[in-house]
Design goal:
Number of domains of chain A: 2
Order of helices and strands of chain A: HHHHHHHHHH
Shape of chain A: elongated
Structural class of chain A: mainly alpha
Oligomer: homodimer
CATH class of the largest domain in chain A: Mainly Alpha
Number of helices of chain A: 10
Distance between the termini of chain A: 54 Å
Radius of gyration of chain A: 20 Å
Chain lengths: 202, 202
Amino acid sequence: MTEAPARGPYAKSAARRSEIIASATAVFGTHGYRGGSLRQIAKQLDLSLTTVMHHFPTKVSLLAAVLSQEDAADTDFSERAARDGFIPTVLTIVERNLGRRELVRMFTVVQAEATHADHEAHAWLRARYADVIPEYAAAIDYDRSLGRVTATTDAAMLADLVIGMWEGIQVRWLADGTDPVAAMRVALDALLLPAPVSAAGR
Amino acid sequence: MTEAPARGPYAKSAARRSEIIASATAVFGTHGYRGGSLRQIAKQLDLSLTTVMHHFPTKVSLLAAVLSQEDAADTDFSERAARDGFIPTVLTIVERNLGRRELVRMFTVVQAEATHADHEAHAWLRARYADVIPEYAAAIDYDRSLGRVTATTDAAMLADLVIGMWEGIQVRWLADGTDPVAAMRVALDALLLPAPVSAAGR
């Protein structure tokens, strides 16, 4: 945090916005986006509906703010993967997610709802896959060029599988606490680091 | 179908129940269990709320009926895996799921909500993992004893990963149509059939 702290009404307004976003994360993570309401969010914060709507005039404007929380945290993925390798970079994010369980839950619930073509976050969900998969595929290809990844499978397919597996493993963690870091480590190694095929091999 | 068809009022009642379960599957798959209501389900079928409640007095009794649909379809997993092998048996279910998209979506949405400890389906979700994982692990171990699986990783971990990966891959399919059969085939091979380590290997 190198920014000077904001003062006065602006700081108050920014704090209020953050508070509303945090409450919406919990409400959407419990009731889904469709089942949640601005009224519930206002009630949870002991604010009037009018105050909440001053900051977020519509539920969908609040959804956009809620969903942009994660993206902000992952903007430097490509740089980190080039430096540290794809596998360690993914594992670092899985570990960091251990400390933001309700955010992960909200994404899991909203994402499941948003698979519907007429859901308010459907375009967001598809854009997210369309952005992340080429980014991951490029990082996997780069690691392959350095010998840090030995799998010969198409990089876009590997990226698909990493994303899919990651989401499923996080659902399990949310449900019963199964360690997602251990699971992801085994899965990433199996997918990306197969043993070299022996001369007598397949 | 070897049973004689039921007749008269019982048959009518059974048909009505199936109709309500199908409507609830669509409503819970769209709005979640928490966001869905008996009223919406009644409206979709053009029935009175009283008629729906005659068959399912509470929303949670309907949830139980909705969730038991999948289990019924997978009761012979172990027998089929012992006969045909674990990988082909899983792939057959993934393929069959292509034809029951709204059922898969309902499970995905309800499962995400049900990760919450206080959700009505939380116990169901945990029991499902507790049942399926040992069953899959046993099938993997059996295949290993026959040489049909060559991975040396702990079978319970492999079962965890297969389940996690499968769920994530299905979310992706629901979102943008990415072929889940192709993805599962690559993922299952990578996890369960690693190349033999060469003499000069790791």
